[in-house]
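[User]
Protein folding is very new to me. Any chance you could explain this protein sequence and its structure tokens? I have pasted everything here:
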Amino acid sequence: MALTQVSTGGVKDDAITKAKIPANQIEASELADNAVDTNAIANGAVSNAKIVDGAINNAKIVSDAAIAGSKLADNTITTAKVADNAITKAKINAPLNSRNMLINGAMQINQRSNGSLTINSSTGQFPCDRWTARGEGGSKAYTIQQISIASSGQGVRHAIKVTSSQAASVGNFDVFNVRQMIEGYNVQRINLGESGCKSMTLSFTVRSSVAGTHSGAIQNSAQNRSYPFTYTLSANTWTDISITIPPITSGSFNETNGVGLRIVFDMGCGNEFRGTAGQWNSAQDEGATGSVRILETNGATWEVTKVQLEVGSVATDFEYRSFGEELSLCQRYYEENNCTWAGFTAAAQGNGSLQVNYKVTKRATSTLTTKTAASSVQNLTSQNLQDATLDRFIVDTRINSSGYGRFYDLLAASDAEL
């Protein structure tokens, strides 16, 4: 006999077990609105076979995620079981924004306007904002640059691309990688090194001309705790990768304005900097033992975009940010400013000072450099970028003659990168 209306109050807690419900018996019309409450269902009672396609709609679920995970058998709720527009924000017990602890994961911000860079030095270079390329291994090298992937169907317009410059014989102590260092404030949510540490999930979209098992690692600031990971690629095929990293309850992790975590992609590191994948190791592992080295194949390529690191054991869809929001996040670490000053020198020598306020408060006191020298200045004898704070810096100039109107214009860079 079919049911008409079942309300939560009419069902004893844990009274409905899997054995009590024949397959395909529960239809949306037979449930009163808000009737399905977690207390009325025995653990594991609701399986896929018990639910008619489309039966789960918004009105049938009490708000604030009322169905506990323990009530559902594994793989119970498939797309077909959920009516369109049924899952509202109130039903989801997870944040929908600010999930991604990485910045510029879609590789769209490139304030330095860097093109192709040759990487063969321990000094980091930036193919785009926040992403650093590093190489230590004698004459061996690779190139890296921001590229357009507008016609790839990936939902983003940029990636970074590595190209091997030779078929290298990688030494045991060589280090060639691409990485981003995450500020400590941004990893506090994970509780790293504590008993309450949470899992985290790294996801990214990647392709390479070299098929096989590639690798990378997650490291702490001191690089004495590392989690090497692997991922498998077919040649020249964009692939979505998801890697869940288990909690770590030991070790020291920075949670202020220093390096909290490093996300590393291995391009060709030596055996001394590789370790066992799928576990936390007490070592500086840059990648996994036995994995592909891009540098070992002349002309080999590797491209990546949509890189995301979030709390939890499930990879959610990539978090798209507006261009303005992503730029602002990047400017905490690097910012360029056009510095313009106009005036009149009445004495034989004159000084001019200009305070330049940052658009975004910096992570730390910046290193100041002149990217484009001053223009349209008569008789300029000196110029200095100085007195940087977290919020501004000073441009100081000296001119050696009087009686002229002065116009001063330069492009300054403030670098507070990790």
In short: The first helix runs from residue 323 to 331. The two ends are 68 Å apart (CA to CA). Residues 202 and 243 are 5 Å apart (CA to CA). The chain has a mean pLDDT of 86.
